[in-house]
Design a protein that fits this description.
This protein is of the alpha+beta class. The chain is 48% helix and 12% strand. The protein has helices at residues 5-15, 22-33, 38-47, 52-61, 81-86, 88-99, 141-152, and strands spanning 73-78, 112-117, 129-131, 134-136. The longest helix has 12 residues, at 22-33.
Amino acid sequence: MGIDLARIDDIVAKKGRTPDMAIPVLQAIQEEFRYVPLEAMEHIAKTTQMTETQLYGVATFFAQFRLTPVGEKIIKVCHGTACHVGGADGLTEALEESLGIKTGENTPDMKFALTSVACVGCCSLAPVVMVDTTTYGRLDRKKVVQIIKEIKG
């Protein structure tokens, strides 16, 4: 796979080598690489007091961790009750058509990942889409496609 193991070593040096630091180490690795590569967990197990089993257990138990590469921009379509009633399914369909992917996939150039989430907590703005940490509300199919066009440049 070819990840930068020196970068992994730097993260471990800053966060810690003991088993109680597994979550902060994995969080920092995911922040760096946008996911937690298995190669990183193997390397950490060889160079710290953490085991592969422990690291993999933490990474698969907590929903915040991703074990596969994800696009640079993560698009989250809220499908909570207010958003569902407000047209979230239509937003998802428009995004899938615009990006040429299905929910749960990445664009071939790895620029975008499209996901569905249960709720983003912005019911008064329904329907809502988040792109990374930016929230867009009161959307329709046309508006959501325009947002993606603007992000693409």
